[in-house]
Recover the amino acids of this structure.
């Protein structure tokens, strides 16, 4: 800072000037040149600086947002100075340079005593491993704690007490204190130190040990964050840590006692633990701990409702995971089954073939039209796996990872005799765990309406397969056999298939067409064990065909559109199995029909038969269509399996994840290919700052490249088409294993329940095998704040001590539309420019009269929500903070402006009708009065929302109830209006749209009220913590009453907008 650097100065008229800024040697003022002003005017006294803000948060940036979009947010900062809180808005050449200026200026503000003294008072600010200095400021409390701790650690290995240890001992000690650091890197640093001192010995002194540790193990990103939080001591006390947890980590219920526990758990120094202080190393350990991982700890256990029918869940499904190699030459191995079960799979496919001596074998059967000679020729030297041994493995590992039901998907063409043997094995091995088909009816009191729930079926194994019709008598019978498909082009028989990658060799597989429809002989003993009947796509088309036929005769109660009930011709105990290509066509051509079909019928998608290499399709394409079971080759690593693991890492990894509500509600509107907002689902904005990566390994197979890698990070968002996006950081050239990125990315998420986020770290310079690590997580599992992202290898195994460090912010979680840009645009949106949700005209007079009643309450609901949202955004803007900031941060900023030099506050909080209001106590500046006015406007908007939400919501719910009552008479109403064909479909689609909107808007208003109550509680607590209460204005008793008032509205059953309302 004293050496100076070039910064871009931004003027209110959006002009950009390049200036060279320096800090005087006595630390008293900033100077810049060139300037039209004389030298004495081109300066800013450090003593006049009020605060230093990061990012584009001042009026200058907000007014000229579109003109300054090319300037990086991470490199921008503003210096607020003078009694009128003027701003000097600057943009550095990089985020690192901005961090140095922000950290240094904040340090000077926290240490006013050193201003005007010698330049050496700033110690090593900004110094780091790159320039041979330590990041820690010498003389600070945190620095002293660290020095004493390292001295104590060195003394433990200095057995002779001479103050020196061998290089090997010093290297081992550093590696123990800093897990994940490479031994070669530490050894090289010691040798460099010895070489610089021209030492002839390899022994290490205590000072050299401390120097090497501080240079190698100090994380600049954590240091800059710690300085911002601790201000002057470079360590955190329980109050500092609690403030960090509340304002950054989203833990609004953090307690001081819990913070003490964290301090004792992660602080390595004895002095820090005794005094309740968390130093740099302890803070780094905490940020790298499981408590700060990206995945919400709530999802480490089962946290979703498990009492709904099986069809309401996505189910983790395996496809021939017992094959070691490809689908043609692969031999069966029990290890694949074990791994699939240990990973949480709840549906296993077992292929069974006839074996010698009447014992069925585990394997792949290609049907009677494909010779198996080629298959057996390639692995006849390996011992075959009997189905009994496979069942014993399944029984052993079935419920070690998850207690919820296991579906065993049987594929076989065995002779009746071997089927009977298989049935005996199933009963003998599984015993009471085997769920008998008749129990399905008994568990539901004989009512065949829906499938049982996972909770009802805990610890049970259900067989999925072919079943003889009830009229079949005797021990044997025949059932039609569904033909396998290749891609999306129809049955396998009579088609030519080119093996992928071998087109130039002309390798094809030709399957002769059958002379007649295939029949499968089925033994009754095996048939009786089947609990869920396997069907083909014919059940889907039959249902849709019955709808069309009924439309021609008379209008049904619910035709082929969202919200239609399943006809009785499709039994609820069936599982529809679709080929990859056919399922893709259905999600593209009939997305609404498929979602409706899956509301009560289990549907499974298997990989295409052309995937001889056991590769996997993209499961997201089928999940968005409502398909519950997307079968993947669990033995084949890659991006598709990563997404699968990300989806099922939630809900405790139990293998069952609730589908979105729009896929479960009886009447709802949803299309898998929606390109806009989903009715009733609030879109959200995800903002991720990729800060750094740590302990990155070299890509596999890159041994010849050397030690240097050039990493970059790709962020992929998977979901509905409107949500799919991909962004990447710049390449950290030759930055080895500890790159710094400091780049922020923003994603719009229209369907949060379906969205998946995938981080991929790649080596930019490596050709062919550039994969380093990845991590996939469901959007609903993201935690806000500073988080570590543990990276996984290609096979899904954790990479030791390897992670990304990111900051996550999720906004507009309860809003009624897309999040707007920060700035004046948020405040200027009035009622005229506001977009109101509208209901569709159905063409049915009785329905339209009912839905017409919702127009006024829907408009009022939008006004209430938007007023609260916009007033809160305006208050944050006035405080100079981004929309992702917490209200406690805003009160802190407000308190700083209200505090006089003597420490007295210029305003005090009082409770008016239970709401925390601020009353001025002295004459305030114009800028401060504007800020208090914005606060009053926010409180008024929150009050209006809280007091009117219930009445408006009840009016919306009343219209919803009346609409659902008429749903039962929909067939008669359509017939009365003479609606047929396209008009009929349009009417029903409009009806389901309206019902979905009404339910969604009611939920949004309920959530907005809960958020407002939580906001008032945060404001009251923040005012007390910042000294804005007094004995005369607010007694302890009245505050307790206020707190009780705010918390008297339970928030159970919903996720707070703070997205992390946990208790520490």
């Amino acid at each position: 800072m004293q050496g100076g650097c070039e910064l871009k100065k931004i003027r209110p008229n959006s002009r950009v000037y390049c200036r060279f800024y320096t800090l005087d040697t006595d630390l008293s003022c900033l100077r810049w040149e060139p300037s039209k002003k004389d030298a004495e005017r081109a300066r800013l006294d450090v003593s006049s600086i009020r605060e230093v803000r990061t990012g584009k948060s001042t009026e200058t940036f907000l007014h000229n947002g579109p003109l300054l979009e090319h300037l990086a947010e991470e490199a921008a900062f503003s210096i607020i100075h003078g009694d009128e809180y003027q701003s000097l808005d600057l943009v550095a050449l990089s985020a690192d340079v901005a961090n140095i200026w922000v950290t240094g200026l904040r340090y000077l503000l926290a240490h006013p005593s050193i201003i005007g003294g010698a330049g050496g008072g700033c110690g090593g600010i900004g110094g780091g491993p790159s320039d041979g200095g330590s990041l820690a400021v010498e003389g600070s409390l945190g620095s002293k704690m660290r020095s004493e701790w390292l001295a104590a650690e060195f003394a433990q290995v200095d057995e002779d007490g001479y103050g020196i240890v061998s290089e090997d001992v010093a290297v081992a000690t550093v590696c123990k204190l800093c897990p994940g650091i490479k031994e070669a890197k530490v050894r090289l640093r010691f040798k460099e130190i010895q070489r610089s001192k021209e030492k002839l010995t390899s022994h290490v002194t205590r000072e050299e040990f401390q120097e090497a540790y501080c240079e190698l193990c100090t994380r600049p990103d954590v240091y800059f964050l710690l300085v911002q939080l601790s201000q002057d001591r470079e360590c955190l006390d329980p109050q500092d840590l609690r403030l960090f947890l509340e304002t950054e980590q989203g833990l609004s219920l953090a307690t001081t006692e819990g913070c003490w526990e964290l301090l004792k758990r992660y602080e390595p120094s004895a002095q820090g633990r005794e005094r309740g202080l968390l130093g740099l190393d302890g803070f780094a350990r905490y940020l790298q701990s499981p408590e700060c991982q990206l995945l919400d700890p709530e999802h480490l256990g089962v946290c979703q409702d498990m009492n709904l029918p099986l069809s309401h869940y996505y189910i983790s499904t395996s496809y021939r995971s017992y094959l070691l190699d490809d689908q043609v030459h692969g031999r069966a191995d029990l290890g694949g089954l074990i791994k699939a079960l240990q990973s949480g799979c709840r549906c296993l496919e077992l292929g069974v073939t006839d074996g010698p001596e009447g014992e069925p074998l585990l394997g792949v059967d290609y049907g009677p039209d494909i010779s198996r000679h080629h298959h057996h020729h390639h692995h006849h030297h390996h011992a075959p796996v009997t189905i009994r041994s496979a069942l014993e493995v399944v029984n052993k590992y079935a419920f070690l990872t998850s207690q919820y039901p296991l579906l065993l998907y049987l594929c076989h063409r065995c002779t009746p005799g071997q089927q009977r043997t298989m049935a005996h094995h199933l009963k003998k091995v599984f015993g009471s765990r085997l769920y008998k088909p008749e129990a399905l009816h008994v568990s539901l009191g004989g009512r065949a309406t829906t499938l049982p729930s996972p909770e009802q079926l805990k610890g049970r194994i259900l067989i999925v397969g072919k079943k003889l019709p009830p009229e079949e008598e005797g021990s044997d019978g025949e059932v039609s056999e569904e033909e396998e498909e290749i891609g999306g082009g129809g049955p396998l028989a009579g088609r030519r298939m080119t093996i992928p990658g071998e087109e130039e060799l002309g390798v094809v597989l030709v399957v002769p067409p059958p002379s007649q429809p295939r029949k499968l002989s089925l033994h009754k003993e095996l048939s009786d064990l089947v609990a869920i009947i396997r069907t083909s796509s014919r059940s889907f088309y039959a249902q849709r065909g019955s709808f069309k036929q009924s439309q021609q005769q008379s209008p049904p109660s619910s035709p082929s559109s969202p919200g239609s009930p399943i006809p009785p011709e499709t039994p609820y105990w069936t599982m529809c199995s679709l080929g990859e290509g056919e399922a893709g066509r259905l999600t593209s051509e009939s997305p609404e029909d498929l979602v409706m079909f899956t509301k009560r019928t289990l549907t499974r998608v298997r990989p295409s038969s052309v995937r001889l290499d056991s590769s996997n399709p993209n499961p997201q394409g089928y999940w968005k269509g409502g398909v519950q079971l997307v079968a993947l080759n669990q033995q084949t690593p890659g991006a598709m399996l990563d997404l699968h693991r990300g989806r099922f890492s939630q809900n405790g990894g139990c293998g069952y994840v609730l589908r979105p509500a729009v896929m479960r509600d009886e009447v709802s509107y949803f299309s898998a290919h929606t390109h806009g907002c989903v009715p009733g689902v609030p879109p959200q904005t995800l903002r991720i700052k990729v800060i750094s990566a740590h302990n990155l390994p070299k890509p596999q197979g890159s041994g010849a490249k050397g030690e240097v890698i050039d990493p970059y990070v790709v962020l992929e968002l998977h979901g509905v088409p409107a949500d799919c996006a991909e962004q990447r950081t710049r390449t950290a050239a030759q930055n080895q294993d500890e790159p710094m990125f400091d780049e922020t990315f923003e994603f719009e998420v229209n369907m949060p329940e379906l969205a998946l986020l995938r981080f991929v770290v790649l080596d930019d310079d490596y050709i062919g095998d550039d994969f380093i690590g990845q991590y996939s997580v469901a959007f609903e599992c993201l935690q806000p704040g500073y988080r570590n992202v543990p990276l996984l290898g290609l096979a899904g195994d954790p990479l030791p001590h390897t992670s990304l460090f990111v900051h996550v912010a999720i906004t507009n979680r309860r809003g009624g539309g897309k999040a707007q840009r920060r700035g004046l645009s948020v405040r200027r949106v009035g009622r005229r420019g506001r977009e109101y949700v509208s209901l569709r005209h159905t063409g049915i007079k009785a329905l339209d009269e009912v839905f017409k009643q919702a127009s006024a309450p829907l408009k009022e609901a939008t006004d209430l929500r938007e007023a609260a949202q916009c007033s809160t955004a305006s208050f944050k803007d006035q405080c100079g903070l981004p929309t992702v900031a917490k209200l406690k941060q805003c009160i802190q900023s407000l308190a700083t402006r209200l505090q006089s030099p003597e420490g007295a506050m210029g305003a005090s909080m009082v409770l008016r009708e239970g709401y925390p209001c601020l009353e001025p106590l002295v004459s305030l500046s114009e800028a401060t009065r504007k800020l208090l006015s914005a606060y009053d406007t926010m409180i008024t908007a929150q009050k209006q929302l809280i007091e009117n939400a219930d009445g408006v919501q009840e009016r919306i719910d009343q219209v919803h109830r009346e609409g659902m009552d008429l749903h039962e008479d929909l067939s008669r109403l359509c017939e009365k209006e003479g609606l047929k064909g396209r008009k009929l479909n349009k009417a029903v689609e409009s009806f389901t749209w309206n019902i979905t909107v009404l339910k969604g808007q009611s939920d949004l208003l309920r959530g907005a009220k809960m958020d407002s109550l939580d906001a008032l509680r945060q404001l009251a607590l923040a005012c007390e913590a910042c000294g804005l209460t007094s004995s005369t204005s607010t007694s302890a008793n009245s505050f307790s009453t206020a707190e009780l008032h705010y918390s008297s509205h339970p928030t159970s059953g919903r996720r707070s907008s703070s997205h992390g309302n946990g208790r520490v």
